[in-house]
Specification:
This protein has about 100 residues and is α+β, with helices and mostly antiparallel strands. It is built from 1 helix and 7 strands, in the order αβββββββ. A hairpin with a 4-residue loop joins β4 and β5. The chain is elongated.
Amino acid sequence: MKKFILVFVLMLTFISNTKAAWPVRTQIRVTPTYASGTVFNTWHRPVICHGSVFGRTRYGYVAEVWMNNIVLYPGQFAHEYVYTSPADPFIHAWANIQCDWLYY
């Protein structure tokens, strides 16, 4: 039983110290000329985020904007915009953004 408890405590220690990003929920807004993705930090500590916002136009072109290592403190948010011309408007947009704890 003591070995089981020791192994359990060690596993919790290793799991809590691993560095792995998690996907976050984003808000997407699509207009004919731009698409935007917004990510919020609702956690109690700073996070660092990276990822892409995509927009698909009526003729099939996929535009992308990349955000790299954006630091968000508690309560802050970040917007990313991707643009197109009015002749080929956006019809769909999505985002793939991941965040991780900011380690000092």
